[in-house]
Amino acid sequence: MEYEKKYIHSSQLFVAVRPSVIQTVLGSCVAVCLYDSKMQISGMNHYLLPLWNNDGLASPKYGNIAISKLIEAMEAVGCQRRDMVAKLFGGASPNNFNAQNGMLVGEKNIQIAHHILSEQRIKIVASDLGGTRGRKISLESNSGRVMLKYVQKTEF
Q1: What is the pLDDT of residue 42?
Q2: Where in this chain does the entry annotate a coiled-coil region?
C-alpha cells in the first residue's frame, strides 16, 4: 500500500482520510494522535504550550485549542467520539528547558492532554511522555500504529 506522507509542525494538525503517514518531531511539545478503528481514520496535532489565555488568536499552538480542534476535525469527516482512542507523545524536558512557575512546560503539556481527553471520554491507549529526549513519531493513519524514534537534543 502506498502512503501519502504529511509532516506537521508545531501549531498544526492533520486528519488523514486516505492512507497516510503523519510525522512530527517533538521536544517539550506534545502530539495527540487520535484513531477511529471503525472509520480507519487518524489525526495528529502538535502543540507548543498548554493553555490559551484568551489573549489574541485561539491557535492550535495551545493544547486546549489543538486537542479540541483535532476532535472536531475527526468528527467533521464522520468519526464518532465514542470510537476514538488516543496516543500521546512528547513533553520532554531537556536540561529543564522552559521552566515556568516551578513546573516544566513539557509537564504542563502532558497534564492538559490527560485532562481534556478524560473530560471528552477519549481513552488513552498508549503514550511515551516526559523524560529528557526528543521524539520523532510517524502515525500510520489507516491502522493507528505509531512508530517512535528517540532523537538527540540537536535534532529538535
Answers
A1: 98
A2: none
The amino acid sitting at 4 is E
Full residue range of the structural domain in which residue 99 is found: 4-155
Which among 14, 13, 21, 4 has a CA at the least distance from the CA of 136?
A: 21
Q: For position 103, what pLDDT does the model report? A: 64
pTM: 0.91
Beta bridge partners of 104: 99
Residue from 147, 31, 12 nearest 86 by CA: 31
Other CB atoms within a 10 A radius of the CB of residue 152 amount to 9
The domain total for the chain is 1
Which amino acid makes up residue 100?
Q
Rounded mean pLDDT for each run of 10 residues along the chain, 156 residues in total: 91 97 96 97 96 87 97 98 98 67 82 98 97 96 97 64
Please report, for the domain that includes residue 24, its CATH number.
Answer: 3.30.1330.200
Residue tagged 482520510 (cell numbers): 17
Residue with cell 481527553: 117
C-alpha separations of 91 from 2, 37, 60 in Å? 31, 26, 16
